[in-house]
Fold each of these.
Amino acid sequence: MSRDYSSRYTLLGTLFTMLAALIFGQHVSLLLDHQRGEILEEVRTSHLGSIWTIHPPRGLIFDRKGQLLAGNEMVYEVGIDYRSIDESSNQAHTIALTSNVYFGLDYYKVKVTIENPPNPHQVYLPLAKGIEKEKVDQLQNLLAIKESDSRLERAEKARLAAQLDGLVLQPYMKRVYPEPLLASNVLGFVGYTQQGLPEGYFGVEAKYNEMLSGTPIRIWVPNDPRMVREFPPIPEGASLILTIDRELQAAVERILEENIQKTGSETGVIVVLDPKSGEVWAMASYPRLDISRYWEYETLSRSGHFVFNRAISAMYEPGSVFKVLTMAAALDKGVVTEETTFLDKGAIEVGGLVIYNWDRAGHGKQTMQGCMQLSLNVCLAWVATQLGAPDFYAYLQAFGIGHTTGIDLDGERAGILKLPHEEYWSPSEIGTNSFGQGVSVTPIQMASAISALANEGKIMRPHVVRAIVKEGEQFMISPSVSSIPISAKTARSLTEMLARSLEAEASVALVEGYRVAGKTGTGEIAIPNVGYTSNETNASFAGWGPVDDPRFVVYIWLEKPSTSIWGSEVAAPIFPQVVKQIALLMNIPPDRYRKAAQ
Amino acid sequence: MKPLYRFAQAYKITPWRKQVSSGMLILVGLLGTILAASLYLDVTARTLALGRAILIMENEIREVEMLNAHLRTQLGILTSSAVMEKRALEMGFRRIDPGEATYLIVPGYVPLDQSLSSSTPRKTQSLSYTLPSIYRQSLLEWLKIQLDEWMRLERDSSP
């Protein structure tokens, strides 16, 4: 027997040895060729399972009273799973027809896509995104077998469901805004990157994008069901509670739009903030974007006039409202007092430039209050020269002019403040800057700077996020002092001076029941190659109150009003309209009730 | 003893008895293997079904979470400023003129701070450990644990 079979044993032995040598050789070659080894490892891993990246739902945005401003909506992606398509059956027709009837997709386009996959190995192809849940529900209701269905109906539904086997309805979350125009300039919007991932643009959506979107989790999902484990909890993105009051924001936006129409202005801004905390209660910017149609931003911005949030991104020369800062600096430094008088001759030369009053007239001997009340350029230019360039600009910088306020909104601009040591600064600048010409600011910068007068000389960092909610815990944002440009005494003294000014001229900015302080502004607009023109102005008004315990600062800016160029005629009348809404919605009783309660 | 020995000897050397004996041994072995295999298959099948169920439930959880978020947003839309104002106007209310507001002094009254949102997301509770370990073990793992447990009990009970 051994002689008969020995050759066979030898052959088998040789074969096994060769096989072992081959395996060993392959092993050695894979050890030496890392790249090939990695590719094969990837192939092996892909057969074992796959990695799922799960994006947590984007955090929500609420107003200060818990009203939803930005939420998430369940929508569907409709796609084709080519593995479930049977070419011999009528599936392509059924799917195309269903997609047309229920989702409004083009019948022929869908049918052609099903019948002609982009490549032979195509497994899945998305047809449409953002299909509303209601439409999908209608289809699912049609296919759902009910107890009342007859046998024939059940069979028909089962047949239809089988025909629709290759139609994939994949749910996902889409950002949605209950009121897409309300505070759109503050919220920003969520668009999609080239990789199809949601990303915030502008406003808080961009500033807090990382926090809102949360941390995506990568989970290994094995193909072997025995190895499947429960997914770890996926925490939602953090939610934000804003300082914005929804009702006040709506009211302020309505007031701004009404007055834009009434005054024939091109654009406008109203900012309302709490000087004691820096909380922005309302921030209206016109024109504004419907953020449910955010893709229109590109078209609008190409027109050249559209700025997403003018309150933080539009720069302009503020005009006379800036005199408040000049006077505050001079009073604080002690170069003038309330009683200091100035003989106004109607013109003054500063650095070789002759400066005139707005009416080109001289107003004789004036106190500082008179200078502010009559808004005398000549007087304020003199005050600035008394202060001197180093101190004047140091104060302006302390007020935050020339740099961003640090508000937690994306896209804030710094404005332009030329300083004495800089190339383009000329000695005449101190004169023009004193009444708000030759200097560029943003509305939030002005509102923030003015808030020093309403908060004992302190500027609180303006902010729009009041609290962050992360995994069920609420973290309050503490107010922080941005700078202290002037003393409390100066702040109170100037506030009193400006309150008396409004009362003395019986300004349209006065509010019944509340003692307020404020200043109008009319800044000429510089036109390239022409220079400053009085035909086109920036009309503004900055006001705050109640004078004895300021609770709000309101800053109003109208660009190029056509009914009147003067801030006192177009911007000042808006102030009481806004204050009445603030008083009502933010629970600020009239002075006499408040004082009686104290 | 001799007749018994003879009987045993005769039984042993009888060919058909030997065949039956070997056949029975093989059958017993086969039965044991089948029993173990079917037990293993049963447990494995249940594990597979549970694994599938976990995946399906994970998907359902995600869908329910999405649905919750969707409904929360729908609620936000229904209570939006514009919708509420429209409803109020339809019900016969009108916008108040700030001058019409009447203020009352209530001694000791402190206004409520409305900064805490009632609609904030709640903590999600992890469902880990809710699935009994028995459903996550293979038969061999289960046998090993049982054996270990038995040995531990034996050890503890011995003086």
Amino acid sequence: MTHKLLAYATYRPHYTLPRSVVNAALTGVARGSGERTVAGYDEDAVSMAVAATRRLGAGVRSADQLYFGTATSPLLDKSCSLIVHAASSMHDRAFTLDVTGLRAGFGVLKSASTTGGVAAMADMRTGRPGSAVELEGGDGAAAFLFGEGADAVAEVLGSASVPMEVMDAWRVPGTSHALVGEDRFVDHALGRAVREVVSEVAKATGQTDPPTTSVVSTLNRRLAGALAASIRPDGFTDVQAVHRETTGYCGAADIGLLLADALDAAVAGDTVLAVSAGGGADALLLRALKDGPLAGVGGAGRRRPPGEAIGYYQYLTWRGEIGREPARRPARPSVAPPPSFRDSDWKFGLVGSECLECGKVYLPPQRVCRCGAVDEVRPFPVADLTGTVVAHTTDGVSDSPNPPSLAALVDFGTTGRLLLEVADARPSEITDGTEVEMTFRRTYAVDGVPNYFWKARPKNRSSK
Amino acid sequence: MTRSLCDRVAIVGMGCTKFGELWDTSADDLLVEATHQAIGSVPGLTKDGIDAYWYSTFASGHAGLPLAKALKVERPVTRVENYCASGSDAFRNAAFAVAAGVYDVAMAVGVEKLKDSGYSGLTVNEPPGNNTGPEVSSPAIYALLPSTYSKAYDVAPGDVRQALTHIAWRNHSNGAKNPDRAQYTSVVPKEKIEKAPKVAGDLGVFDCSGVADGAAAAIIVRAEDALKYTDKPVYLKGMSLYAGMSNGAATAGERHASFPEVVACAAQVYTEAGITDPRSQLSMAEVHDCFTPTEMILMEDLGFSERGQAWKDVLNGDFDLDGVLAVNPDGGLKSFGHPVGASGLRMIFELWLQFRGEAGPRQLTDPELGLAHNMGGFPGEFISFISIFGKELG
């Protein structure tokens, strides 16, 4: 039993690191083409997964399953899918599950396509400075909603797997640098696995004609391109090339980003084969039911507005490779579990309250209204609202890995206001009247434990 | 129903330490200095004559014990904390106790030792919370005000900037006439103020109050007993305290160019004190100039200027030492810094000196009525305190 794909969405962070910038810093020669995406200093796999999942639209709220895949979970032992669940305003009886490792992206896709529900995947690729992992890696997220509905964007024709015990990629617990096996060996092993899985998926689905489009997600960019082309020599492989030039290999989220891009480029009736090559190979074959790009259902075109290129020093600082001197400020408060638990709707869902008597909105929610009503409230969700900057300022005092930090007083029309930190913007990009959207961020961490809350960022400027 | 304390209590003695980066002085030292100065200012009074203490500090001690230990007193000591208005609220509660007839002599004493933390500005130890407050510093929060004021009244940003510069210039000029106690005692040229490094938004270093240690104390008795202690008592004409319910900044449509708590607070205290035209009736005002735009907006909220006119009145010199209503004649928070628990009492100390003719080079000519405004928090959620004092009964 498989379910139809009802919506899909991607999230690429605002910041990019041109490969030539890395090479210039390390070798003095600005060679290398394209750029990789870089999560903001206040982003991680969880926050990016939330961004992609919320873009799926209202259907997420009634989904009964949430599968969250990442190889860079910010917390172990604790299920981070619960954070994604809370911040995506899903219903409170949904099943959630964390899936780990680079194959997690395919894992959540297959799981959600089998049971219905949401497949969310996000990752950050960090290698040793100057490594191929760093240069060819990227950060990003994708999300897919499967279920039954007349308005589906694609149907799942079938899948196949060729598992293979192979040391192609690994990371030792407690370390941040991803490591990979020798290229030529990995090419050999994975090349064989991909050929086999393509054959298996054809058998499983009865689709003996080559797919209209194929995308292959794997660590090695040359192998990815070569394999995609080999599946359908005359097929459309531009998706793969653009992905490498603008994004890079995004770990567990890579297969999702490529599949979304391929669906965007497809027309109704096209078949799309998504192959995840790592530890063997896994493949999912879909048939598009609508013409792309499907921005209307949460998908988005491959062409993204230009992000902001950052310097290598900035990248290394955000990644923790360089320990910069912090501002002389008091330590941030540790994350206190009980208050976050009690106030989950506000902290993770950004849901305020509205007085049933007089209509006043409170952000955060309040039990007592100034009109005198007590406990006469209904939830007032803010996360999907567009706000307008009423006033804004730089803040040279607060410590930030991306100084100067920005703050804005944001007005939500007829409702309330919030003073918010501003993400993904330079001071010159925020003026009075700027429209902003809410974005779920990792606001800080104490002893490695992340704290999450919402910030504002310029609307419609972000990559999709 | 709020009843007036007009002419029911009086200050008969005060003390105030030097404010500044007092590396060689502890909070205990500051308490000893301020309280002994205050006691010493009342002929014949000894420590045994103080019946009860209200001791304010934001973060330099807990409970009443630090004061009891430092002064070696066995008396009722209540610690008061109400953000930056802590010192004012210590005074307020001591005044209530005396007016109620429970004690004959009460002392309000405030202290803060900010510099020991190693950080600039205030550090707040909040209880465990959900950690959803934005990481936005105090200067940044106040840096929103110049532009919202400018928009609310259609005043050119450059004109607002000039007014802020004038406020910084004037308060530092006044502070230069207060060398014994102010933290900063130099006149700062306007050009230097405008060219200073920015801290947040358009607010430069000189738009922000300093960070200082300090202490101040007041001895309070019933008005009818005042002349037993001194021939120059200062009489309380009214006081008012309001806690904001977090509406101002959070309410859509607000212009964010006024502090509603201050407006309410002022209306009440003026009624208590019988003041109908504060600009002409008051001789002086100590106001909470934590940041220069705060002072500009306060001129309107306190009724010293018409709405949208404060910037102009400021530039006209109306609130200079020789203007129609001297504001912050002692130099304000700008010159004194802001040792949180002490500031409210430091403001009252300047009224005490002025009414007694002891303000030296900044002495005003025969002041009759003065106001002290002290507040804590942020636009949208302020603790606002205003007291009015006079030289004479009636």
Amino acid sequence: MNRSLESLLQLLGRAPRKPKKDELSPEVQKIYFYKKGEKVTKAQLEALHDEHHKNSKNKWRKRRWLTLIAVNLLFVVSYYFDIQLLEGALTASRFMGFHMADLNSALQVMLAHKQVLINLMIGITTIFILWFILGGRTFCSWVCPYHLLAEWAEKLHLWLAARGLAKNYTFHRGVRTVFYIIFALLALLTGYTVYEFISPTGILSRALIYGPTLALAWVAFLLLFEIFLSRRAWCRYVCPIGITYGLVGIFSPVRVTYDMTDCKHEGDCRNVCLVPHVLDVTIKNRSTDVEIGIGADCTRCGLCVDACPTNSLNFEFKGLTRKSSKPEVERSLMPEKKEEQS
Amino acid sequence: MTQATNDKAEQNQTSKKPSKKKTIHRGPGRRAQEARRQFLRSVALTVGVTSVSLAGFIPLKGHADTRLKMRPPGALTEKDFLASCIKCGQCVQVCPVNAIKLDDLDTGFGLGTPYIEAREQACDFSCDGLQCVLACPTGSLTHVLDYPKDTRMGIAKLDKPKICLAVAGKGFKGIARGPDYDGVLRYEDIDRWNPIPLKDHPYDVEICDLCVQACPIEQRYNQCQEGNYPSGDKNQCPPKRAIGLELIEEKNGVRHMKPVVYDGCVGCGVCEMICPTEQAAIVIDYNEVTKMPLSPEYLKKSEGHS
């Protein structure tokens, strides 16, 4: 099936499909076959893991946290010192005088108000182009302040869950699409930007810039819910902003790519991922090609890139980054003889 | 230990199948059960979160088009204002007197929308050019509005004539709102561009007329009378006066002064802010506006917009 369509359906909540054997490229089949004969012991995996983490510890996470904090701080500093560099909040702003509008907030406003002003149109276009290039949901993990708090809450959740002090109730991922439709319809029918009333992104961004509000209690409630009852629930199952930017990022040139050649399929990447379904291709016999782009729901957070002990997951800027460095020779050396043996 | 073995044996008996196959047999059943639970949880989540979002209606109940607070210059009617405001606070950032604040949870869908608390800090049109209107990305503060005279934030009313100093025939000497008050106003004769704290500008008048003296529309009106147009733009000139002290004769023959609000009042709230009595004798009704028609410039521009 067309990969972009598959990626869209997964974004909207469909579970990843296990490909039939004839969908796998011959080369991939060969590699999987080779791997079948190669037993990986736990000790080997741990050694790989240690070796990998000795050199690069959370490289992408550091960069991402720095970026996220810097962007949000720029709003605060710009207002506090009145330097007019980045005015407004995450819902709408001006960067050095140039309009920017959060696509989901703008959508809510357009549906509720049924009129579009030129300034808003400029803001929408700018932001659309920006996130189309940078990867859609990149907004979530690299800019959204709630994401950072939720990431910390997730750490706490995992710690508590390991000790039996927290549960992880899951929901059907399709429920986020249902929310998307509900909030679009509510805006259209009631004439109020209903989602903005509960958007932790907007509430947090404004609280940072203009000072704390009672609305922060709602954000605290969400975090507690995630800590004790359901891992990363808001981002995974509710937030329509994620879908909006996911849609923008379907054809984005910036993405994480997976090269299955060296992958040990141990699942370290899926353990750290906010949206693990996009990494189902890393399960044995799931990847149809040797190299495959990760779907639109991916927030390009880079946790998997950091976690992967075999460097099988990497950031790619289509057309700019060189293809992964595995020389063809090495691939062709995958013993075909073994195939004959069995 | 024996208990556990017994249980196992019992299970094996009932299923009559090797235990390895049994798990495969029971697997889908359990999965279906979990799927059903997950579905129910998802329904609950949908109902829960949607209900919370609809709680934003509660404070608005019964007055969809009534303002709960004063809005910044150029605000559309309340319903349209709430529909169009993107809640970014850019108007807050550009206001030179920091008159604009953002609403909280208690105003429902008003969360994050701008309002002005005139008694704390009124809009004194210091900026002439209506910066908040220019900053608004969505036109919630209508871009048709160019001049203070066409603003319609409300209208001033002498709410408590009994406490009004002018009505009582009293003067006023000192700092209008006391030494702890932080509000600022622009004084043309002190610094045209930089507003100064009210506490740095004491008054001394025989009959209190602070509301008239401070009124930005009155000041503009008087400047224009002298041929001295604000920002050098004749269109800045208000067509009518906004407020003045008049000598009133009661039925019982008692004569006293009284602030009278005229059609030129746009409801900026400076009179409410400066009124030196404990509670403001004069306040803004932000759900009513003057009967004075909008200027031809405004109407012309508004045609182009709709």
